Amino acid sequence: MNKLYTSNRNELLCQKLAQNIKNSSGSIFQKTLIITQSGGMNAWLTGQLTRINGIFSHYEFQNQDGFMGQVFELLTGEPLRSNRDAIKFGVYGLLDSEDFKDKFDNVASYYQDNDLRRIQLAEKIADLFDQYQLYRVDMIKKWERGEQETTKEAEGWQIWLWQKLDLPSKASYRQTIYDKLEEDAEKLKQLYPEIHLFGISIFTGFHLEFYQHLEKYIKVHYYLCLPSQSQELKNSMLENNGNKARELLDQCKEWNRESADFKVENPGTLLGRLQQSILNNEELKDKNHDESIEVTSHYTPVREVETLYNYLLDLFEKEWGKGTLLPRDVLVITPDINKYEPFIKAVFRNAPVKLPFRVSGAARNSGNSICAAMELIVNITEDDLTAEKVAGLLEQNRIGMAYKIESTSYIRGVLNKAGIRFGRQNRLEDDTHYVSWKYGFEKIILGYAMHTD
Question: Low-confidence residues of the chain, pLDDT below 50?
Fold first, then answer.
């Protein structure tokens, strides 16, 4: 029992999701379960669904692995422990064993007498094994039988580690769920009569098979955002970036499909014309430039955020009093939100005009926590000793309170006027000494000593 909804706009898919939630035949005491892949999508959906339906309550967001864990616990009564941490620390111990060092001395020579390298390697291997369980299920099954797919040395030592770990794979957990559902599926039907998968751009074969198995017992709604409905791609941009869309269409070509709608707003702008050309699967002909698409270049991430702030401030000033542009209408996407989060907070919190903002999808330890402060301190190096990074440290609540700092904006101003940019002392030969911390502090101290403004 599945239903696939497709559109080129998430807003239209969200309207279909809101309608399905509103028309749901389940009990009002049952939670609405929505499976997504990011915290940012969760925040956006919460606001949109509340606006469309007038109320959005008794709901739950989950990711794909989290939902499988919930089903496992529901059917077995035991929590599904993520084996990623178990793999990491298990591998860390095995890498130090004499047996491994004797058998695979080439690998062991990398981290010899270096525990930091060993834990870093263990973390990479744990991540790799986690990916194998999703994308290379057949290979993992062979490993568990003691079979090797290739004759490569790299696979040999990985098989050795996997067999020594002796941990149940995700595939074995999934098979346990299948077996339990054959015995009794009433618990699943009562708690999750239907589920909604929204905003997921990549479905692994592992998870897709899991959802297709659940369709025997409950309703599964898929909401896919596709740039075009065409299978044969003629638009060059769509061809270069549309492989994932084609894979999604191939995976679900036999499903019960319903198009929510495919349309483009403001087709008169360059952005609209580009979107229309992608939707129609044809090359863009009219390339006259306007302000709907702008490309800028910046020398640092913090300068990038400052330009963004100035751009948004200009937009809101132009639309002031019209009510056509609200903060909730603005979505900013970054390639790595954990990297940009401190710069976003530093710029937007210390700006002369306050613009409301919220950072979604950042790692749990990237906020104002003790763990985040410790991580920043441990990771900072001589090469990272820039004025912005040090000021970012002072933005942390615990560090700021420890040094009784009341205004980081004042400190930033002092650092800027003193010309401090990076480096503890730097070199006179290339004039970098004059932007160092040592030279800047000397200027500050001399300024106080001279009793001038």
Answer: none
